[in-house]
Amino acid sequence: MLLVCALRAPEFEHGTGELLPNLLPIMRRVSIQYPPQSLESTVEEVTARFPGCAVLQIQPEMLVKFLPGKPREPAETTMKETPQEYIERITSYVEGQQPLKVQAATPRKLERLIKGVSLSKLRKRPAPDKWSVVEILAHLADTEIVGGFRIRMILGAPGTPIAAFNQDAWVTSGHYGKRDPRKSLGQFQVSREANLALLKSITPEQWKHHGIHSERGVETVEHIVRMFAGHDVNHIRQIERILAPQK
Fold first, then answer.
1. How many CB atoms sit inside 10 A of residue 7's CB?
2. Are strands 3-7 and 54-58 parallel, antiparallel or unpaired?
3. Secondary element (H or E) of residue 110
4. Is the separation of the CB atoms in 24 and 66 below 8 Å?
5. d(C-alpha 120, C-alpha 218), whole Å
6. CATH numbers and ranges of domains, the chain
7. pLDDT band at 246 (very low <50, low <70, confident <90, very high)
8. Cα–Cα distance between 116 and 123 in angstroms, integer?
9. Three-state secondary-structure class, residue 30
10. Are 169 and 121 in contact (CB under 8 A)?
């Protein structure tokens, strides 16, 4: 995938070699079009929209080495797997299933899992670097808001960029460990019902609308819904393991 950039003369005069290290600071003067259609038609569109500009085609990975600071781990997961491996693992959990049905069943499954479990057990981490049930529930509540926002952004502006987030940083900054698990579950359920109602109302064409995830690339609404269903299964299994009787 290429980024097609329209650059005004002062930024382009120095040539690509000197431009790339300075591309991020001048981003306000750069218009980027991620091409869901053919590259040729995208270049034509950008040229028409920005007359008098030089049109530059850049491989996204060319920009990475110019980002300031140390190389970062993927924002949405600290697991040692590539974005593609993560996608394959998460979607495999719902292979052959209907994602909307999986998502609709999740709140009650979570409710049954934590029913009658003491707060101290729900707050206890199975290991220092592993989330507690309380933290998982808070994570599900917050990511449901994220997912709903992403879908709405895509429906309103197909091709929109989708920002990743650091989930472990959210656990810390959001004080997930201090959250009330049943309130988190309630928040999750309300957000999930609102998102499912929206998804049931959209057209077949809208299911194909996409955004550009900053780490995983093109993601359609259909793909995001399948990912969130697999995400549900992933964390349900995680909670089951944490709450399983010790042998």
1. 20
2. antiparallel
3. helix 99-114
4. yes
5. 41
6. 3-64 (no CATH), 83-243 (1.20.120.450)
7. confident
8. 14
9. strand
10. no
Whether the CB-CB separation of 83 and 91 falls below 8 Å is answered with no
- DSSP lists the bridge partners of residue 58 as 3
| β-bridge partners, 32 | 5
Convert the pLDDT of each residue in 21-36 to its tens digit: 343 333 333 334 344 4
The amino acid at residue 22 is N
As a whole number of angstroms, the distance between CA 217 and CA 162 comes to 9
- The model's pLDDT over 58-72, given as tens digits with 9 standing for 90+, comes to 444 333 333 334 334
C-alpha–C-alpha distance, residues 175 and 135, integer Å = 9
- Alpha carbon dihedral 243, 195, 105, 116, in 10-degree steps, equals 40
d(CA 7, CA 9): 6
Judge contact between 222 and 126, C-beta under 8 A: no
Tell me the β-bridge partners of 212.
161, 218
| Whether residue 212 has pLDDT greater than 60 | yes
Q: What is the pTM of this model?
A: 0.70
Label residue 79 by pLDDT band (50, 70, 90): low
The residues near 159 (Cβ < 8 Å, ≥ 6 apart) are: 34, 36, 210, 211, 212
